[in-house]
Amino acid sequence: LYSFSKNYYMIKIYNIYIIISFIYNILYINYISSKGIELGLNNNNVLLPDININNIYKTFPRGNKFYIKPNNINKELIIYGSNLSSSLNNKPYTNIVRYMVNIPNRILYILVGLIISNGTISYASKKNLNNSIFQIKDYNIINYNYRGLLTEHNSKFIFKQSIDKFEYIWYIYNILSHYCLSLPVKTKSKIKNKIYYNIELVTMALPCFSLLRRLFYTGRVKTLPSNLYDLINYESLAHIIMSNASFHNKGITLHLHNFTIKELVMLINIFYIKFNFKSTLYKSNNKNVLYIDIISIKNLYYNIEPFIIPSMKYKFYKYI
């Protein structure tokens, strides 16, 4: 057992962390808003459907109804998705809370960029997958079961970066901390007898991530959804570049090896039609990649610059 003084010290450290994270999130939103960039907070079109359409207390009558303490004091109107606090060291969510949690557009756009690049989504359990939403190929079909639930499967989002990108993974953690019960951890992998150290972020297993799994996976294969045009914005592009791109004298290469040529051609068209910059498909080491030339980078950078973290901005300076 720890002594009282050690426990008290850890509580102080934790409280300081919560305060810093809270201030960081406020400054982040204010900074982006001052740039006139659309966060998705003011978008009336909520991109993900409701996970539950019935009275959640009746759906889970044995669930703990007092996990979230009632607040009968504050009566302010809160913009959806603007008040997501950190869940660090909280107790695991009850089923009632799990089905109350969804992903607002502001965070969804970021997750889309991360999933297209290096992020993955895995099932918490593979039980009864044959009768799940993952078998419905048409994203526009929304079928709720007899309990009023869109899915009864939980999935978790996993994002890994090399240890030299710790600042970036910490930046992502601060954005997704509402969905995480623990901090990012250091991991080790061995490839061709060489050891690599990484930082890995893993969220809670929640139904809302199952909705993303349905969008971006066909079976076990990562794919691009047909409605990607509506799910991606400049902030998504910034995260695709920060987490996945390699920089060289002639431009930027996006290593999107998971996707087919047909999917990459669709992505090229989205880049050109929605964001007005050109990209080219070619092979590198026998793998399909997308190349963005210097002219396109100059046109793109003004719009993604507010979302680029300071430690990565220097990579763009030779292009602008």
From TrEMBL:
<feature type="domain" description="Homing endonuclease LAGLIDADG">
    <location>
        <begin position="152"/>
        <end position="297"/>
    </location>
</feature>
<feature type="transmembrane region" description="Helical">
    <location>
        <begin position="259"/>
        <end position="277"/>
    </location>
</feature>
<dbReference type="InterPro" id="IPR027434">
    <property type="entry name" value="Homing_endonucl"/>
</dbReference>
<keyword id="KW-0472">Membrane</keyword>
<dbReference type="GO" id="GO:0004519">
    <property type="term" value="F:endonuclease activity"/>
</dbReference>
<feature type="transmembrane region" description="Helical">
    <location>
        <begin position="107"/>
        <end position="125"/>
    </location>
</feature>
<keyword id="KW-1133">Transmembrane helix</keyword>
<keyword id="KW-0496">Mitochondrion</keyword>
<keyword id="KW-0812">Transmembrane</keyword>
<feature type="transmembrane region" description="Helical">
    <location>
        <begin position="12"/>
        <end position="31"/>
    </location>
</feature>
<dbReference type="InterPro" id="IPR004860">
    <property type="entry name" value="LAGLIDADG_dom"/>
</dbReference>
<protein>
    <submittedName>
        <fullName>Orf4</fullName>
    </submittedName>
</protein>
<feature type="transmembrane region" description="Helical">
    <location>
        <begin position="197"/>
        <end position="216"/>
    </location>
</feature>
<dbReference type="Pfam" id="PF03161">
    <property type="entry name" value="LAGLIDADG_2"/>
</dbReference>
